[in-house]
Every structure is written in C-alpha cells, then in structure tokens.
Automatic annotation (TrEMBL), chain A:
Belongs to the TRAFAC class TrmE-Era-EngA-EngB-Septin-like GTPase superfamily. Septin GTPase family. GO terms for cellular component: cytoskeleton. It is found in: Cytoplasm, Cytoskeleton. Residues 45-317 form the Septin-type G domain. GO terms for biological process: cell division. It comes from the Eukaryota. This is Septin 9a. Keywords: Cell cycle, Cell division, Cytoplasm, Cytoskeleton, GTP-binding, Nucleotide-binding. One of its GO terms (molecular function) is GTP binding. The keyword Cell division applies. InterPro entries: G_SEPTIN_dom, P-loop_NTPase, Septin.
Automatic annotation (TrEMBL), chain B:
This is Septin. It comes from the Eukaryota. Residues 320-398 form a coiled coil. Residues 399-426 are annotated as: Disordered. SUPFAM superfamilies: P-loop containing nucleoside triphosphate hydrolases. PANTHER family: SEPTIN (PTHR18884). Residues 404-417 have a biased composition (Low complexity). InterPro entries: G_SEPTIN_dom, P-loop_NTPase, Septin.
C-alpha cells in the first residue's frame, strides 16, 4: 500500500504497512525500531533499585522484603545474628543483591534501619536517616560535578522508603507523623500497615481512613504525590492507588498447601492467611506498585525532583556542611 | 551517622536466586513506555559540497519532503542551517533536526571552511553544558540539540578523498560520530566503486581519522554491525521520484540506459545506510554522543576554565571551592578596577578644580586691573574738570573785573568821551 506524500511538511504521520523482511517497504522508515534498541540497551545495562525500610523492631520488615523479592534479601538473612540486640542508636545497614529475572538484571539494595523508634526517648530519631539519604545525594552530586566522571554514575540514592505503621487500629502516633512529615520532602515514602492480620476488615478500613485524614491534615505527601501526576491518565491511575494507601500487608516466606496449591502464607489454628490473595491482604497491590508498574516512575521522581531540590540547595549554599542536616533548621519544617 | 555496609556497593553484591516470579522483568517495558511518552530526539549533520544530493538523501531516508530549495553556489562562507521536524511512526514521536552545511566547498580559499562546522557543534555542546551546570535546571525536558550523527558526503570522483575532506573529517572526528558516504554513487561503476572504497578507507586510516564504528558488543546486533562496518563508506543514491518497475512503484532514478533503484541492494547501499543509521544504531549514536564526545568537550572546557579535580597536593578540590576562589578572584579584580577608576576620577576632579581656580584668579586680576584703569581715567577726568573749572572761574573773575572797569570807565569817560570829542572838534 502506498501513502501519498503528506501536504504539510511540518508534522506528519508516516504510516507503516506490513513490514517486510527489510526489503522494499518504502513507506516504513523504521523510527520505531528505536524502542527495541532502547530495550536492548536497558537489558545490557541492568537496573538499580535502592529501597529503605523504616519501622520499629518486630513489625516484620525483613520478612516483607524477603516476600517482595521472593528471596533472602533482608539484612537478617545476610548477617547471622544469634541474638538480635536492639542497638542503642539507629544503625543504617545496607545490603546489595544481584537478581535476575527473564534476562533482566537488577541490583537491589535493601537499606535497613534497626533501632528506629525503639528507644525510650526517640527525639530526633529521623536525623541519622535524613543524614544517610542526603549523603547518598551528596555522593551522586560529587560524582556528577567531577571533571573526569564515570560513564555511568553509580546510583546509591534511596529511591523509595517503606514506612511500617504498627497495626494499632486507631491513628498515627506522633513519631509516625513527625518522621513522615520530614522525610516526605526528601524521599518517596510508601507507608504500609504492618502485620495487618491482626485487624479485621472493618478495623482495617477505619484505620486507613484515619491515617489518610491525618496525613492530609499534616500536609504529608506520600508516594504517589499528587503534584507529580503528569497527565489525566496518570492521575486516574494514581488516584486509585491513593485511595488504597496505606497498604495493609502481611509477609511470609513459608509455603503452605491451600486447596491443592502451594502458597505463601501464615498458618494459624483458625485458618491460613494467603499473602498473595487480595481478599486477605494488600501485599499484591504493594508489590505491583513498587515493582511491576511504578518502579521506573519512582526512580524518575527521585532523580528529577528530590535530587534536583537537594542539588539546588547545595549549590546555593556556601560550604555549609550538610552534616548538620536533620537538625531543626528551617528545612523540613 | 552510624552507617555500615555489609556489602560494598558496586562490588561484591551477592547473587541471590529467586524462589518465584517477582515481576521486575517489566522494567524494560516501563522504561520504554516512559521514553515513548517523552518522545525522542535525533540530530543529523550533513556535511558536503553543494550539489551532492544531501537534501534529496534526507528526503529519501525519512520518506518525506523536507522544505527548502536547492542552494546557490555563490555563498561567501560556510553557514549551517538547521531545521527541526516532528515525525511520528506508530506510537513513536521523533523530533528530527537536520543541519545542512550551506556553501561548503564553494569558496576559492577553503582554509576556514571547517571552522564554522566545529563552532556549530561546540555551540550545541556548550548549550547542554550550561544547562547541566545551572542551579535550577530542567534536564528532563531539555531539547537536546547536540549532533548525534554526521553524514559526510564524499564526491564520487572515483579516485581518492579530497584534501578538504581529510582536513574537515580530522577536525570533526573527536567531536561527532562521522559516517562517511559516497554521494551520487550512480556515477561510478561497480569495479571502480570497490577500488574507490578501498582507497578511501586506507586514506582515512593512514591519516588517523576516527570514523564511527557500529558497535559489536551486543550479540543481537554484533554480526550485522560488523558486516556493515566492512561496507563503509556506504555508496548511496537518493531519489524521491517513483518509477514503475514490474508492477510496483519504487523510488528510482531513470536514465535512458536503465533505472537505478534506490532500495535495490545490488544498485546501491541506501538500504544498508537506513538500517544502520535508524533501525539498528540510532540509540547507540545518541549514547556515544553523550558519553564520549560530550564528556570530552565538558572535560576540556572545564579544565580550560581552570577547574581541576585535584590540586597540586593531590587533595580533591570541590567544584564549589573552585567557584568560590574564582568568584573571589573576580570580585577582587572588580574592586581593583573600581579603585582605579575612583582614583582617576578624583584626580581629574582635582585637576579641573585647579584649572577653575586659575581661571578665577585670572578673572579677579583682570577685574582689578580694569578697576584701576577706570579709577585712573576717572582721576584724570576729574583733574581736567578741575582745571577747566579753575579756568572758568578765572575767566568769570576777569569778566566781572572787566565789566566793572567798563562801567566805571563809562561813568567817568562819558566826559572823557565828550572831552575827546570836544578836542576833536576844536
């Protein structure tokens, strides 16, 4: 089939007929082959993802990470601890893993924060975390402004921070509000209700509503942030997600036999909770959001918005050490 | 902070097997979707003498008619004209910029021909560098104008490269990906063409010109790319006119002795060029431009401006500190200049003041002189007046005395007069 030459030279469509094996399809230029080229390049380079988990001890952070990535990626699996002692101050520990699926390679880094919120006096417990996040931005910035810089700057910036809310069923605690308020300005926060198998469905809905109200009242913008929706389609998808936040999750790395199938779950005397069953808990939604649909978007927002904000601030300062970040300066309030 | 790394980032990450399907194999799809939404950008520079068919080839490559009329041959210097077009194919939007060198090779003295081209390429790099160095920057939505591919059109003489070609390509090879092509190759016979290609390649090698090599590190395309590398430079023919061959309409050039079909691989290498340039390596061209040519430019430019990564004592400099130092230096210079100007101003004021004082003094003196003159004159006049008055007084006195005498004389001399008269009568 032949396309007549278009009348307007400025913008036009080049329709492609059935593409033959590289011969004689003269109206097909082949511009869309660039998508394939990009995909090849991406497969070759691999992807990087850095997730931080924050929450008090005992909320199931490590288990959830293992469940999300279907492998032993948490700190506890790597570091043999016979006795887990609650550290006196917040420790920030990060572990990197190389995982591969269907030819797609990913370097996953899980950053754990044991000791968060565990002390008697938890004032300023967000400081070490803010410092860590800013230190990653700083490292990236330093590499970026080098004269001789690497071909691909290694990305250690925290892309996503999963915040674990204990399933009290009432409302957010002041610690939660404080932490999320400060950190939502520098990193993408995804709040989740941990160990949601202790809440009935009505309690869960009530709890979620309270949490959403409180987040709104305190002006806390969690991922996906309303202001970064790009178009109507995005807004539609993200609005649906925003109505479900925070996700009520249950984690497990044990498999049980349910109806003849082997499923991940938690077995109790009164029944088995299936982790991936959306009627039981919202783990599947969290996994889809984080990994299957919005991963690229999360990384994008980190690099083009949070990092740029840091960069602007940093370049405008006169050598004030960022080491003082997190203290109650004007920033973050 | 108390941070420790159990595994160092970048090295020694443990390989972990997955127990089930996680789903991040959708990452390339997510990436591709994002790019599709964002659109792509590709910039081609066509360098070659006027009349080698550059515009026609672009039209043929992208299957459309770009605007513009053929250029005259009497341009005084080499200019670069760029035009941007929005193309769309299925769901891919491409912002294509075609830059043409107008007047290349037309001058009598072509020594400076390459300069405007190098300048143009550098300007695009500079614009990107400026954007990258800005404090508030919008790299995400920046319209990239850096040249991704340079098609160098070689005239089909059949013998060898012209020296203008060698010089220009040598100047451009470290700034842009050069793809040399033999233009209007229907003017050369097949056997001559083979010899020509060999000659060109050997001349390029012996002069150390780095042309773009299609990448062979990815197995999917390594084979086709390395074959194509052997066919460089591509001998092309461009045409937007269609001729009926058999029962199909094909792009061709019709001569009395036969028809040259553009897309027939036996006739010319057009299909190869299109494959390589667009369908296989467009992304690699863009990446090479960014990671090799642009980085080189950036490094040279920043070093030229005096920035270094480490100072002579091998302690790392931060860009921030260098900025500060430079800015202080600049402010210092500025202040010095200001001081100088102020000094000069003060001096000039003093001089002017002195001048004015002089003038004032002179005026005073003049005034004094005149005043004195005036007084002298006045005195003289007064003296004269006085003497005149004296004379007048004297005269008056004499007059009154004379009158008195006369009246006396009249009284006494009424008789005297009579007496005199009687005397006379006697």
């Amino acid at each position: 089939m032949m396309m007549p030459p278009p009348a307007m030279p400025a913008a036009f469509q080049v329709e492609k007929p059935v593409p033959g094996p590289g011969m004689g399809d003269f109206s097909y230029v082949g511009i869309d082959a660039i998508l394939e080229q990009m995909r090849r390049k991406a497969m070759k380079q691999g992807f990087e993802l850095n997730i931080m988990v924050v929450g008090q001890s005992g909320l199931g952070k490590s288990t959830l990470m293992n469940t999300l990535f279907k492998s032993k990626v948490s700190r506890k699996s790597v570091q043999a601890t016979s006795q887990e002692k609650i550290p006196k101050t917040i420790d920030i520990k990060s572990v990197s893993h190389d995982i591969e699926e269907k030819g797609v390679r990913m370097k996953l880094t899980v950053i754990d924060t044991p000791g968060f919120g565990d002390q008697i006096n938890n004032e300023n417990c967000w400081q070490p975390i803010m410092k860590f996040i800013n230190a990653q931005y700083e490292q990236y910035l330093q590499e970026e402004i080098n004269i001789n810089r690497k071909k691909r700057i290694p990305d250690s910036r925290v892309h996503c921070c999963i915040y674990f809310i204990p399933p009290t069923g009432h409302c957010l605690r002041p610690l939660d509000v404080e932490f999320m308020r400060r950190l939502s300005k520098v990193v993408n926060i995804v709040p989740v209700i941990a160990k949601a198998d202790t809440l009935t469905l009505e309690e869960r809905d009530f709890f979620k509503q309270k949490i959403r109200e409180e987040l709104r009242a305190n002006g806390i913008d969690v991922y996906p942030q309303k202001e970064f929706d790009e178009d109507a389609e995005d807004r539609m998808i993200n609005d649906k997600i925003r109505e479900m936040i925070p996700f009520a999750v249950v984690g497990s790395d044990q498999e049980y036999q349910v109806n003849g199938r082997r499923l991940l779950g938690r077995k109790t005397k009164w029944g088995t909770i299936e982790v991936e069953n959306i009627a039981h808990c919202e783990f599947a939604y969290l996994r889809d959001l984080l990994i299957r649909t919005h991963m690229e978007n999360i990384k994008d927002i980190t690099s083009s918005i949070h990092y740029e904000v840091y960069r602007v601030r940093r370049l405008n300062e006169n050598n004030t050490a960022i080491a003082h970040e997190g203290e109650d300066t004007h920033w973050g309030d | 902070y108390n941070g420790t790394c159990l595994a160092k980032k970048g090295e020694g990450a443990r390989a972990v097997p997955l127990a089930g399907h996680v789903g991040f194999d959708s990452m390339p799809d997510q990436l591709v979707n994002k790019s599709v939404n964002h659109g792509f950008c590709f910039n081609i520079l066509c360098v070659g003498e006027t009349g080698l068919g550059k515009s026609t080839l672009m039209d043929t490559l992208f299957n459309t008619k770009f605007e513009g009329e053929p250029t005259q041959h009497n341009q005084p210097g080499v200019q670069l004209k760029s035009n941007t077009y929005e193309l769309q194919e299925s769901n891919v939007r491409l912002k294509l910029t075609v830059v043409n060198t107008v007047g290349f090779g037309d001058q009598i003295n072509k020594e400076d021909s390459y300069k405007s081209i190098v300048e143009f390429i550098d300007t695009q790099f500079e614009a990107y560098l400026q954007e990258e160095l800005k404090i508030k920057r919008t790299l995400h939505s920046y319209h990239d104008t850096r040249i991704h591919a340079c098609l160098y059109f070689i005239a089909p003489t059949g013998h060898s490269l012209k020296s203008l070609d060698l010089v220009t390509m040598k100047k451009l090879d470290s700034k842009v990906n050069i793809i040399p092509i033999i233009a209007k190759s229907d003017a050369i016979s097949k056997s001559e063409l083979t010899k020509f290609k060999i000659k060109i390649t050997s001349e390029l090698v012996s002069n150390g010109v780095q042309i773009y090599q299609f990448p062979t590190d990815d197995e999917t395309v390594a084979e086709i790319n390395s074959t194509m590398n052997g066919h460089l430079p591509f001998a092309v023919v461009g045409s937007t006119e269609e001729v009926k061959i058999g029962n199909k309409m094909v792009k061709a050039r019709q001569y009395p002795w036969g028809t040259v079909q553009v897309e027939n691989e036996n006739h010319c290498d057009f299909v190869k060029l299109r494959e390589m340039l667009i369908r296989v390596n467009m992304e690699d061209l863009r990446e090479q431009t960014h990671t090799r040519h642009y980085e080189l430019y950036r490094r040279c430019k920043l070093e030229e401006m005096g920035f270094k990564d480490t100072d002579p004592d091998c302690k790392p400099f931060s860009l921030q500190e260098t900025y500060e130092a430079k800015r202080n230096e600049f402010m210092g210079d500025l202040q010095k200049k200001e001081e100088e100007m102020r000094q000069m101003f003060v001096q000039r004021v003093k001089e002017k003041e002195a001048e004015l004082k002089e003038a004032e003094k002179e005026l005073h003196e003049k005034f004094d002189r005149l005043k004195k003159l005036h007084q002298d004159e006045k005195k003289k006049l007064e003296d004269k007046k006085k003497s005149l008055d004296d004379e007048l007084n004297g005269f008056k006195q004499k007059k009154t005395a004379a009158e008195l005498l006369q009246s006396q004389a009249q009284q006494a001399g009424g008789s005297t007069t009579l007496k005199r008269d009687k005397e006379r009568k006697k």
